[in-house]
Amino acid sequence: MILSKKVRLYPSKLQEQKLWQSVGTARFIYNWTIERQEENYKNGGKFISNENLRKELTILKTNELCWLNEVSNNVAKQAVKDACNAYTRFFKGLSNKPKFKTRRKSKKSFYHDNVKLKVEEGNLVKIEKIGWIKTNEQLPIEVKYTNPRISYDNKYWYISVGIEKEEMQIELTDVSLGVDLGLKELAVCSDGTIYKNINKTCVVKKIEKKLKRLQRQISRKYEKNKQGKEYVKTKNIIKLEKQIQQVHRKLANIRNNYLHQTTTNIVRTKPYRVVIEDLNVKGMMKNKHLSDAIRKQCFYEFRRQLEYKCKFRGIELIVADRFYPSSKTCSQCTRVKTDLKLKDRIYKCNYCGFTIDRDLNASINLSKYKLA
């Protein structure tokens, strides 16, 4: 099984300029690929393959885009491949139509060829056309790396690589664990374990309050420096934008770290299978009153982490059908309560009189999913 390893880089000022150049090249070529595909479609042509676009790019490098030779050749080639893969996923109905990447919103990252990546003892990594860069942790030596990516998270540079690891051979229990995700609590397990919603803690609320204050402050400065229909970006505005980026980064790291702690604790109970529900997050986000709370819970990331951690330990992960009535079914007599509302936090069965917490009842029903 391939697991990723991510370590921080310590580039010099000159190396950091070259890293930014590679990031800009990857974004430019990605947008160039989308533009070529759109132009070709308007002229009645079919989808241009990845190989043909790469050949076209090689010709352009000798004339118009000769500056691409300053960065690694694989940065541009992989950007073309990423854009073509995005279109392939769109044609299959797996994702939305690819959009142009902007300097402000796009992820700051680029690809590095796994063959040309060199690692030496002393926490050193060699990146093509950039040189040797020190890392804060030693990457494994003399192993096969897959999909190396260099990224920037608005504060530090990182390199992430995929490394082949053998799956863990552990003795599992005979427990079928149901996990119910929600907004009041992040997750309620069928064994009674509750993982709280970290967005309701004082620490996160204090950071979110600071974020709102900075956003109001920068909004007032934009309005004050407005010239006609254009907004002028002053040095103070740039400083505030950097502060806002750091706050967003801090919130994202807190939530991601808590998701890792939660999913790791779930798989460490060693159940032979874990059952979660298939949530329609896209439909749930249409509720304007709950969309912000749903976004902060990061349900997709929770499921992604749980999938690879279960696979690594040999635990079966089952995703219950989207229309399975886990909340409406009585875990005692299996009768379905059709008039259950969202505000009803305590489940009381109309037939047997069984009373239980709504989320715990749902998780128990999920643990019994398709066992009969």
Strand and helix order: EHHHEEEEEEEEEHEEHEHHHEEEH
Task: Tell me the span between the first and last alpha carbons.
Answer: 32 Å
| Mean of pLDDT | 93
The total strand number stands at: 16
**Given the structure, what is the number of helices?**
9
Work out the radius of gyration: 25 Å
Classification by helices and strands? alpha+beta
User: How many strands, which pairing sense, and closed or not: the largest β-sheet?
Assistant: 7 strands, antiparallel
Q: Poorly predicted ranges (pLDDT <50, ≥5 residues)? A: none
- Strand-residue fraction? 15-25%
**Please, how many domains?**
2
If strands are numbered along the chain, what order do they take across the biggest sheet? 2-6-7-1-5-4-3
Shape: globular
Helix content: 40-55%
Q: How would you concisely characterize the structure shown here?
A:
This protein is α+β, with helices and mostly antiparallel strands.
What distinguishing features does this structure have?
372 residues, alpha+beta, 2 domains, seven-stranded antiparallel sheet, globular
Characterization of this structure:
This protein has 372 residues and is α+β, with helices and mostly antiparallel strands. The chain has two domains: 2-164, no CATH class; 176-320, no CATH class. Helix content is 41%, strand content 20%. It has helices at residues 13-42, 50-61, 73-91, 202-224, 235-267, 281-284, 291-297, 299-313, 358-367, and strands at residues 2-10, 108-111, 118-120, 124-127, 131-135, 145-152, 157-164, 176-181, 185-189, 194-196, 226-227, 230-231, 273-277, 316-320, 346-348, 355-357. The strands form four sheets. A seven-stranded antiparallel sheet has the order 2-6-7-1-5-4-3. It has a five-stranded mixed sheet with strand order 10-9-8-13-14. The radius of gyration is 25 Å and the shape is globular. The model has no long low-confidence stretch (mean pLDDT 93).
